[in-house]
């Protein structure tokens, strides 16, 4: 059993490493304009990775909230890929100014250390950071005034939660994230779209209750479950050696996401 657990752990980390290496290569080859912007939140500065599309008109801004590993190269690569489709993307590093030693995700020695730090963030700090990022996104001169939020894993939960306290976003895209507290759902004004792997019962077990609560409050909640795909299929599916089910789920959810964004 110990050998099996160790093998599974090593395999998971290998998938992450492969996705990271591929993402870094894609970023290095990208012709699009990338910026690192510091957004002020009282006594803190939030590092934001911003990507601009190569288009001649103003664009909708998509705020991309990272996984529990922080703002990785894979998240930045996803942001760059989304910009190809005509969207400005703002990806905040919510581990910014975590401590004197760790000022950003890249300062952490490994993904486990970043993950441990993520779960030490206070919900209020995350909320206020995202509100400041939203204000920044809305004021971008190249933006058209419309903002959408999308998040993965821990970030998916944050995107769902953001819909409960920010009435300015036009939609919340939740990739394999959990729902907010029941008493917060009544505050949601934007439509929420969920993307889930079929082999992710830890998350999926809560979907029926979430759907019931959203319907009871008259909120729009559409979700899509991809058979055979696991948790984090958007990242795992980017790995050329990844499981076919994750690749298929990544492709289908990407297409569905673009359909949704085109209607906003």
UniProtKB/TrEMBL annotation:
Residues annotated as domain Dienelactone hydrolase: 48-263
InterPro entries: AB_hydrolase_fold (IPR029058), Dienelactn_hydro (IPR002925), Dienelactone_hydrolase-like (IPR051049)
This protein's record includes keyword Signal: yes
Pfam families in alphabetical order: DLH (PF01738)
Signal peptide positions on this chain: 1-19
Domain of life, per lineage: Bacteria
Keywords assigned: Signal
GO molecular function: hydrolase activity
UniProt keyword annotation of Glycosyltransferase present: no
TM stretches of this protein: none
Protein known as: Carboxymethylenebutenolidase
Species the sequence originates in: Tangfeifania diversioriginum
């Amino acid at each position: 059993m110990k050998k099996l657990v160790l093998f599974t752990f090593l395999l998971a980390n290998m998938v992450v490493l492969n996705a990271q290496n591929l993402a870094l290569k894609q970023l290095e080859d990208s012709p699009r304009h990338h910026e690192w912007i510091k957004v002020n939140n009282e006594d803190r500065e939030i590092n934001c990775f911003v990507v601009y599309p190569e288009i001649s008109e103003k664009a909708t801004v998509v705020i991309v909230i990272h996984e529990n590993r922080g703002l990785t190269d894979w998240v930045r690569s996803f942001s760059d890929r989304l910009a190809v489709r005509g969207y400005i993307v703002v990806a905040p590093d919510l581990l910014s100014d975590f401590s004197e030693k760790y000022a950003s995700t890249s300062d952490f020695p490994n993904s486990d250390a970043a993950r441990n730090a993520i779960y030490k963030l206070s919900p209020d700090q995350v909320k206020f950071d995202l509100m400041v990022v939203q204000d920044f996104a809305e004021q971008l001169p190249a933006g058209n005034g419309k903002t959408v939020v999308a998040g993965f894993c821990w970030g998916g939960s944050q995107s769902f939660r953001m819909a409960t306290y920010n009435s300015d976003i036009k939609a919340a895209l939740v990739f394999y994230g959990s729902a907010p507290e029941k008493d917060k759902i009544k505050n949601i004004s934007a439509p929420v779209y969920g993307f889930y792997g079929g082999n992710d019962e830890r998350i999926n077990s809560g979907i029926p209750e979430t759907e019931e609560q959203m319907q009871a409050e008259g909120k729009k909640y559409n979700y899509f479950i991809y058979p055979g795909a696991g948790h984090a299929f958007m990242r795992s599916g980017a790995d050329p050696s990844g499981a076919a089910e994750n690749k298929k789920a990544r492709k289908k959810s990407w297409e569905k996401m673009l359909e949704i964004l085109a209607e906003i």
